[in-house]
Amino acid sequence: MEYRKLGELEVSVIGYGAWGIGGAPFWRTEGDKKSIDSIKKSFDLGINFFDTAPVYGFGHSEELIGKALKSVRDKVVLATKCGLRWDKESLSSLRKDASRKSILEEIDLSLKRLDMDQIDLYQVHWPDVETTQQETMETLLEIQEQGKIRCIGVSNYSAAQIKECLKYGKIVSLQPEYSLLAREIEKETISLCIENGIGIIAYSPLSSGVLTGKYDKNTKFKDWRSKGIIGTFTGEGFVDNISRVDQLKGIAREEGKTCGQTAINWVLRQPGLATAIVGVKNSAQVEENLKAVGWQPSIENDKKIEEIFALT
Predict the structure, then answer these.
(1) pLDDT tens figures, 18-58
(2) What CA–CA distance (Å, rounded) separates 256 from 42?
(3) What is the value of pTM for the model shown?
(4) Using an 8 Å Cβ cutoff, are 305 and 297 in contact?
(5) How far is CA 165 from the centre of its chain?
(6) Residue 25 carries which DSSP code?
(7) Cβ-contact 32, 67 below 8 angstroms
(8) Which of 79, 60, 42, 35 is nearest to 203 (CA)?
(9) Is 237 helix (H, G, I), strand (E, B) or coil?
(10) What Rg do the C-alpha atoms of the chain give, in angstroms?
(11) Residues annotated catalytic, as ranges
(12) Strands (DSSP E) found in 27-147
């Protein structure tokens, strides 16, 4: 396993993404036992970075992560989030709230679910435009001073929002969507992060499964992807993406890798990248994903990948 610096933290280049194990209303799981087994297997294979959030299964993901990692707490880097609240366990009730009042409530709820005294990386899940960055950052700095969190990060923030945060305190990470099919952060955000020592934590490096190569243009999703929240999964955009993924499959075969391993490997080789969090449902998927580490495609194939998935 390869490890990289993330502020004062040191994290594995492949991180465990715990969205999927939270279950409904986002994903179907294979059961808590397989979820916990996958967490433990990840640790055994060298993964030390585990990323979750309260909204993943409305607390269930945090509880599973805490239970599985309790005995090795001092050997892992644990990340969770704040700023998304709900009144009932449904997608329609979700709301952004990064106010002081909300964060002070959320941190204690997360610590209780995780059954831990401190969180290594505490991230604002989505920017809350109704709350000033000053209020959000000052609250995070307050709970950091109290010892409840070690480091502060943000997720899904624009370059402008990051600049505003930096006026009030230090952040060590940005967690954006980043994959061959989602490269918007290359326009201005990556360079800003590098200039300010902010590590990038890529989420959805497999574009929620599209880059695994297991779907075709006729696939109809039956989970949150069916809502068309992201054009990646619907209409002409989806058909175009599948066409590009089919080309990636050919390159992967030449490299002796799977399509998914090739897609993850590309993310790991990008400037500013600290870790890529990959969601799994069982131990076999963990072992499969780790084969993305420690190699690079031929110069010719790397060029082909860039041509196929060029940022427009």
Answers:
(1) 988 887 667 677 789 999 999 999 999 999 999 999 999 99
(2) 23
(3) 0.93
(4) yes
(5) 20
(6) T
(7) no
(8) 79
(9) helix
(10) 19
(11) 56
(12) 49-51, 77-82, 84-85, 95-96, 119-124
